[in-house]
Every structure is written in C-alpha cells, then in structure tokens.
Fold Sigma-70 family RNA polymerase sigma factor.
Amino acid sequence: MLTVVTESLTDAPAVPDDGSEERNLVAAAARGEMRAFEALYRKHAGRVHGVIARLVGAHGARAEDLTQEAFVRAWQALPAFRFESAFSTWLHRLAVNTALMDLRSRRSRPQDEGDSDEEVFDLIGSADSAGHTTALSMDLERAVASLPPRARAVLVLYDVEGWKHEEIAAELGMAVGSSKAQLHRARNLLRDRLEAHA
C-alpha cells in the first residue's frame, strides 16, 4: 500500500512550496481535520516507512505496522505540536523513536521464530523470479538488514540519517564510545558480507 502511495506522488509535477501549505495542513490536522492529516500522510509516508524499514532490518510487515503506529502516534500528538521545528523533522524523529522502541522491546524478549537476521542474509545475491541476480542496491539493503540490531541502528542513524554519536548514544542508552564502536563494527561486517557475496 505504501509503495503505491509513494509511486503516485513521485509522478506528480514539482510545485514550489514555501512551507505555508504544509503549515496550514498541520494546523488543520491538529484541529482534527482528517483530510489534512491524510494529505500529510501521503506526503511523508514513503520517507517514514523507509527509515523504519532500515532500522528494523527490512522486515516488511513489521516495518508497515510500525509506520502505521508512527502515524497513529503523530495523529494523537499533533494537537500539542508547537511549530518549533519543521513538521517533517518532528514526524521523522517520532518515526525513528517508534522503531527504536520496538527494537528495545524485542531485545528484552526471545527472538520470534522467522525473525532471524541470518535468513535475510541468505537471500543476498539470489536469483529473482526472472532468473536475474538481484541488483547491488538490493544486496546492500539486505546486507544492512542482516547486521545485528544495535550495529544496524547505529549505522542507519549515523550514516543514513546524519545523527551525531551523542544523539545516538542518548537514544539507544549507550556510551558515545559504544556508539562509535558499533558503527565501526557495522561497517566492517557490511564490508565483509558484501565482499563475500561479490
């Protein structure tokens, strides 16, 4: 469902936006106007789903569930939004926090059956239904998905999302040095896995 929404948005012609249209949509949604919130959802769903999918390791159904959860939380918290930052920044942070809370809760309980990172890694470089080897970008995404959860989270937040180690450490409840060590570990594992399947 999310891919259909995001694909249709990318086909639309670009319209310059000074931010006032989004500000008006946010204000209307905060007043409870569902159509305004739906417009915000259509505009931001792709990016929110993307960051959540990278953080949880590309488990499709789980990423979709967490995306929906993030938007439910946004709907509930929107009346308190004070325009101190851009709506997209606020929503993106809320999405990251939703994914990180899920990662924390999963770390505290036994791993679900079928949720193995190794299963994801086994698919790297496999032939698709037409007999073609999957593209390098897909290999990279699957290799990232196969990383241990904390290393993957640090890699995504630092290299993809542009967070600082201090922010990552505070959010993940670790020391700054541990964040740096996890990033180093993630990069080495990623390099080794991509070279092994090249």
About this structure: Residues 34-56 form the longest helix (23 residues).
